[in-house]
Structures are given as C-alpha cells and as structure tokens.
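<context>
A single protein, sequence plus fold
<entry> Chain with its tokenised backbone below
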Amino acid sequence: MKRFIMKAVAVGMAVLMTAGIATGCGSATEEGKTEETTKLSGKISLAGSTSMEKLCEAMSESFMEAYPDVTVTTEYTGSSAGIESLTQGSIDIGNASRELKDGEKEKGVTENVVAIDGIAVITDKENATKDLTTEQLAAIYTGEISNWKELGGNDEAIVVIGREAGSGTRSAFEELLKIEDACQYAQELDSTGAVLAKVASTPGAIGYVSLDVVDDTVNAVSLNGVPALEESILAGKYLLSRPFVMATMGEVSEQNELVKTWFEFISSDEGKSIISDLGLILPQ
C-alpha cells in the first residue's frame, strides 16, 4: 500500500501542474461557469473497472455540468479489458482498480492514482462470524476451510463468491493475500453489485467488494481485529486496500486538452469532494 500511495503523491503533483497547462479551455468557478468554460467541447471516453462505476458516474455528471459541450462516456468492462482498450487506442482513459502490471507499463501506460479504496470482506446478515485473520481468509478462498464451524461459527458450508478473471478487485484481493491462481470459487461474478447481491441472498456466503458499496444488506468482516474503515487504511493497519487508477497512454501532460481538463477537475476542490463523499480516500 505504501508503494501506491507514494505513486499517488507523484501523480497528484503532475495533475496539479497540468491544471496550468489546460489554458484556453476555462474552468468552473464558485460563481458559475466562465465564458471560456463553454468553449471546451468534444468527447472523453473511459472503460474498465466495474468497482469504479460510482466514482466515474458522479465525476462525469459534475464534469458535464461544468462543461456542457463535453460528453463523457464510460464502459464497465473490467480492469484488464479497460487497459487493453487503452493500449489499442479505442478510449482515452483506462480505469483499473489495481496497480498496473509491468507488462502494461512497458506498453507506455501511465498509472494515475485518483483515489484509494478498501476491499471489504462480506458475509450474509445471519452469519455469526465477525472477524477473521488473513490466514483464515486465505484458507477459505483456497478451499482449506469449508465450513463456518471450523471458525467457531455455525455448522454451515461456506459458499465462496468472487469476481471473474480480469477483475481488478479480484487481482488485488488475491495478490494481497498471496493466493493468486489458488482460489476455489463456488461462483465468479462479473460485477461488484452482483457479488454484493449474491452474498446478501445466500446463506453461508462470503465475498469481497469495494468498500464504498457496502450497505446494510450484508456484514462487513474485520480482519485481524481491524475494521475496514478509512482511518484503518490510511494508518496501514487494514490489509485489503488498493488504488483506483485512471490510466493514460503517456503522462497526463501529454494528453489532449479534454483529458488534461478532466484530470484538472479531479484534482479540484469539487473533484476531491466527490471522491470523499463516495467513501473513497484521497491520495496523500
């Protein structure tokens, strides 16, 4: 986690420098839209992580209010698919809810961390188990522990729910627990919302989702006695946290005016407020 937070600092500085580059485009002010704001027009296309849907939708809505002649479109295809679309040149920004892989960086993809998210481990509401060690969690997902009674819970089979291959959430979860390619899933689902709904409706189920989507339909399990909270993540006490990346081909400063202005908006007070209101953590 420390590694990607350090990267976030560097990216944040680059984005702030970019704010001064996007001249002639104008920006929204507290008093309203400037005359230059309306001159920015065109389309920004994003694709990738389903975990980043709430962030992208909220950011896009506010950005298009500030720049009414700009259209922002986002497809939620999964992190790996989003980065692949970026390298193929079919989109402007690839969303990934994980750190970029070395092979992706070798293709010229730049990792721009815009927020930090926790991965919450969830169970159905009737589950009596409230805390797991990371070793127990890993054993559940590799099939070594298959009944909740082995953990002091009810005599009930554990139904292991996860994301599909290529999901940024899955990649981050398995990498952080060091169980890559060793998991035994009962079901692999293609979106954060699907995992949340399945765990909520399935007795004995366990799953993992982005922290910002957790609601009262499920229980969020503590890990090693540490709850999945913002302060725990920033303190480095909660293991399961990952970056939300909006990747570009090359540095932000090398992008077109539309994309540079998009990143300028994210680093503005309004953009930061959107990130915080969604329960995500601002890069330090």
